[in-house]
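Dear colleagues,

As part of the handover before I leave the project, I'm documenting each prediction I ran so the next person doesn't have to rerun anything. This entry is a single chain, and its sequence is reproduced below.
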Amino acid sequence: MRCIADTTARPSSGPFPFPSVQYELRGFRTTDLNAIVAIVSEALHEYYESSLYHSLSQQWSQGFLVAAEAMGQPVGFLLGVIQSDHEARVLMFAVDRQRREQGVGSMLMSAFLDRCRDRGLRRVTLEVRVSNANAIRFYTRFRFSVVDLLRGYYSDGENGYQMARDIT
């Protein structure tokens, strides 16, 4: 029996799409703050004090990745921290609405997982709203699976899922 997925062409770069437009992948800069706050507000429906971004960027600077256009304007970011000697956690991850489904998120997640692997970490966790089916599908493509239901996790009372994956 042949699996239908076997007939689907995959991009030459692997199973995840990468942007056809060139984006700079770099670390967080103070000048990124306003753009990142706007992305967080629109995409995650949350607000965090600006001091939090600065503080977290200093804890593990390699874990705060920014995808930026040629002029330096951020279009997406992933903010991860080291939870323990062997585990990282994605605290925030979002892409500007106009850049979604163009590979920016895949580029950020792949780079983050590579940095975790290089650091010798063995596991990555994250949280996602139960209503965010697109994000859940995205994380599943990166081999994350649901490990827990977090009741009332978000500031508006919505439940979340904790998802995790091992790094090999």
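Helices lie at 33-44, 50-59, 104-118, 133-141. The chain has one domain: 20-166.

All the best with the project,
I.
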